[in-house]
Amino acid sequence: MKIPLIQNFDTVILAHGDFPAHPLAVQALRCAKNVVCCDGAVESLLQFGLEPTYVVGDLDSISPTLKTRFADRLHQETEQESNDLTKSVKFCREKGFDSITILGATGKREDHTLGNISLLANYADTVRVQMLSNYGVLNAISETTTFESYAGQQVSIFRGSERVSITLQNLQYPLYRSTLAQLWMGTLNEALATTFTIDVHEGKVVVFREYPK
Q1: Do 100 and 175 lie in a common domain?
Q2: Do 41 and 122 fall into the same domain?
Q3: Are 173 and 119 within one domain?
């Protein structure tokens, strides 16, 4: 499998972290055919000049005025065993939106950021998904994958399942059948050329690639 730097997906999920600011993230939002908005992010989206296609969540973070305005677009999920981002991914899957860009999932609170990034590996079981922050793109993989890159691109790799074994090719700091036993062990690497490859022998990993400067 080969993954380009940014994939052109029709559906965006907008979470309530830092609003997209990098040009590539903003472009993904502007070009989306469907914008599924976690309820807390609706006002930010409206201030940006766009309206949501759907609003998903427990709806406790949206004003009564906006509830009335978007009554035909609301999808309420009251269960508390998952967060609004996970509820939105589930909703997209039910709608048949199986290629998704997640925006606004990082920033503001570190616990939300870590949680949302770690859940990316779970989402990849059922949909094609990428997460764009204001600094780079994150993908979850469970098979040997070649990534589009450039010399000097900053790359970090995180364990996405309990058991992991990976080998890195064409990165400055090679690993061979590494288990990534601690969170930091795959971070702060660097691409050497226009592609690099991660051989996944077991498990899942989440890969961060810095945007081109």
Answers
A1: no
A2: yes
A3: no
- Is the pLDDT reported for residue 81 higher than 80? no
Same-domain pairing of 22 and 126? yes
Q: Are residues 7 and 67 in the same domain?
A: yes
% of the chain at pLDDT higher than 90: 79
Q: Are residues 22 and 46 in the same domain?
A: yes
pLDDT tens digits, residue range 196-212?
999 999 999 999 999 99
Does the structure show a pLDDT above 90 at 84?
no
Question: Which residue, 56, 21, 6, is CA-closest to 35?
Answer: 56
Cβ neighbourhood burial of 196 (10 Å; 0-12, 13-18, 19+):
buried
Alpha helix positions (H), 96-213:
110-123
Q: Cα separation of 120 and 130, whole Å?
A: 8
Helix locations, 6-161, DSSP H: 23-31, 42-48, 64-69, 84-95, 110-123
Provide the 10 A C-beta neighbour count for residue 168.
19
Residue 134's pLDDT band, with cuts at 50, 70 and 90, is very high
Axis-axis angle for helices 84-95, 110-123 (nearest 10): 30
Domain count, the chain: 2
For residue 172, the model assigns a pLDDT of 97
Taking residue 80's Cβ as centre, other Cβ atoms within 10 Å add up to 7
| Helix extents (H) in the chain | 23-31, 42-48, 64-69, 84-95, 110-123
As a whole number, mean pLDDT of residues 90-96 equals 94
